[in-house]
């Protein structure tokens, strides 16, 4: 085996990891819509603005409808968000291509599914014309591919944009060149993809449903595995991929507004058996990691403690209120992998214990105080005192365990780095080679005339 062959495998693996990381990062844009959708939907429910709350029934209907609209069109939002996030140089034509592609994909797959024995019940309705009942395709029904179809179209639109956004066509077709060509080619690709998915999805979708039912039906073990996998993939930016499956795909509930899929959608729709795969995050994100942040603060040397405290206390408050914990986790995951391994195990334990205890609590954004307050009074929220009690216990465990391990093994958590490292970090100009990796910043070369992006043809109305 030659050295070239040996080196090729790691390069292929690194390229695959880079692609998965891009997909994971691109999922953040559509997921960022969820807080707005969850807030609107929650305030529009009967116990908030509705008849059992403030009694503003019409206002509740409008507000709830606004939130429901976003959840009903999550696949389209994922298509647009993934296309913009995955493309290296995205612009408005990327989003337009994603919209065009998903609309074509949605209609084509529904036509294909109408001929499938397993899926036709999800896309066909009975219409009565002249007293005669006949089956017809319900193009307004939710697509069985759900958000996975949107993600797939988003990736395709992004790749086609990168390939064709500079394409030049013959003079008589020049108006359709460049970025204007991207939505056209995306529509054609979505047509072909829709036909392929029409043949593949009845089998693949069945496997996916069976796997989702196994995970959600595994109870405490399934929740624990999900918690461990979620935190293990965080350093690589891949945790959004299993999150998307658990949150928006696995499990189904036939609610008042139709069938919904995924743990978040089911919980917000009122499924009495949902939220068990989300409740375990609250003790970790709201309480445990803030305890870890305070431990890193107190473990810092006295002369650095004030600087570290400002950062860690701010990060702890952010985690407690919003559930955003990356600033805390990235403070120790690379400098102290042992601490991160402990964090992974504790996350799995929390998920498993609360699931086994029957606790249920969901969120629209993350497991923070805002979502806890909003959803505390929901009918399908269960075991809230247990969740809070376990959170307090986790705060104590994280604080003392992290502080002990940091001091015992002298981990270089914030404030405990060597003095020379801190001085360079505080004043990068004092040692530009260390601060900049030994390289001086290079001036950006102006593009040559041949490299310049071709101007798009003017519109016929202005020409």
From TrEMBL:
GO terms for cellular component: plasma membrane. Residues 419-463 are annotated as: Disordered. It is found in: Cell membrane. The keyword Membrane applies. Keywords: Cell membrane, Membrane, Phosphotransferase system, Sugar transport, Transmembrane, Transmembrane helix, Transport. InterPro entries: PTS_EIIC (IPR003352), PTS_EIIC_1 (IPR013013), PTS_Glucose_EIICBA (IPR050429). The chain crosses the membrane at residues 27-45, 147-164, 184-205, 211-229, 275-295, 307-324, 330-354, 383-401. PROSITE patterns: PTS_EIIC_TYPE_1. It is a multi-pass membrane protein. Pfam families: PTS_EIIC. It comes from the Bacteria. GO terms for biological process: N-acetylglucosamine transport; phosphoenolpyruvate-dependent sugar phosphotransferase system. Residues 14-418 form the PTS EIIC type-1 domain. This is PTS sugar transporter subunit IIA. It comes from Actinomadura montaniterrae. The lineage of its organism: Bacteria, Bacillati, Actinomycetota, Actinomycetes, Streptosporangiales.
